[in-house]
């Protein structure tokens, strides 16, 4: 009797997963079109060639809005499909470009309070590379937690040549490098 219940639970779980995948698949393009996102090409300067280890991790836990002095926002994207409000922020700082994962919470004064939960130093980009945030598919499914460096391809809005990719782990507060197989990135502002 116990084995029958386990099989029923496994079958129901599999059925629910297929249903969720179907539902998400049906509304995939709508979600991508409604995403608040921005992509950026990082500059090639001496600051961007500094080692990632020297630049990463120093801002985790920082509460901000506006950004600290000497830093400039160069783009960003809201993460969709997460239980809490998170956003990627592309930050230009004297020590180099980085991506912050910010949690966003309402503050007593009405302005949102942003806290850096994870930080990723952006490796130097070649002149023909771009950074995509929250607009990449993994195995044909939109995953807003993915960042990727892509090689520009003229005349396309869906990029298939991926150099490097990361997925943010909100719970662990870190960016994790992921395999590039099966990843494509779409320019949300591109022509359709």
Task: Describe the protein's architecture and organization.
By secondary structure, the chain is α+β, with helices and mostly antiparallel strands. Helices cover 19% and strands 38% of the residues. It has helices at residues 2-26, 28-34, 52-55; strands at residues 63-64, 72-78, 86-93, 96-106, 112-121, 129-133, 136-138, 141-143, 146-151, 158-159, 162-169, 174-177, 183-186. The strands form 3 sheets. It has a 5-stranded antiparallel β-sheet. The N and C termini lie far apart (54 Å). Mean pLDDT is 74; it is low at 1-56.
Q: Which strands sit side by side, in order, in the main sheet?
A: 1-5-4-3-2
Roughly what percent helix? 10-25%
Query: Structural class, from helix and strand content?
Result: alpha+beta
Please tally the β strands and state the result: 13
Task: Explain the layout of strands and helices.
Elements: H1 2-26, H2 28-34, H3 52-55, E1 63-64, E2 72-78, E3 86-93, E4 96-106, E5 112-121, E6 129-133, E7 136-138, E8 141-143, E9 146-151, E10 158-159, E11 162-169, E12 174-177, E13 183-186
Antiparallel strand pairs: 1-5, 2-3, 3-4, 4-5, 6-9, 7-8, 7-13, 9-11, 10-13, 11-12
Summarize the structure.
Helices cover 19% and strands 38% of the residues.
Keywords:
192 residues, alpha+beta, five-stranded antiparallel sheet, four-stranded antiparallel sheet, 13 strands
């Amino acid at each position: 009797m116990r084995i029958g219940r386990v099989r029923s639970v496994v079958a129901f779980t599999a059925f629910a997963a297929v249903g969720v995948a179907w539902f998400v698949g049906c509304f995939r393009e709508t979600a991508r079109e409604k995403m608040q996102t921005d992509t950026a090409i990082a500059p090639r300067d001496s600051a961007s060639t500094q080692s990632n280890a020297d630049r990463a991790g120093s801002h985790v836990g920082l509460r901000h809005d506006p950004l600290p002095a000497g830093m400039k926002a160069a783009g960003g994207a809201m993460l969709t499909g997460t239980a809490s409000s998170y956003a990627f922020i592309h930050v230009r700082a004297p020590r180099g470009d980085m991506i912050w994962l910010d949690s966003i919470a309402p503050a007593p004064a009405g302005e949102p309070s942003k806290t850096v939960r994870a930080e990723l130093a952006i490796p130097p980009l070649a002149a023909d590379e771009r950074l995509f945030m929250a607009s990449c598919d993994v195995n044909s499914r939109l995953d807003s937690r993915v960042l990727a460096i892509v090689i520009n391809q003229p005349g396309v809005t869906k990029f298939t040549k991926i150099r490097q990719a990361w997925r943010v782990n909100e719970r662990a507060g870190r960016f994790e490098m992921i395999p590039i197989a099966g990843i494509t990135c779409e320019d949300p502002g591109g022509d359709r």
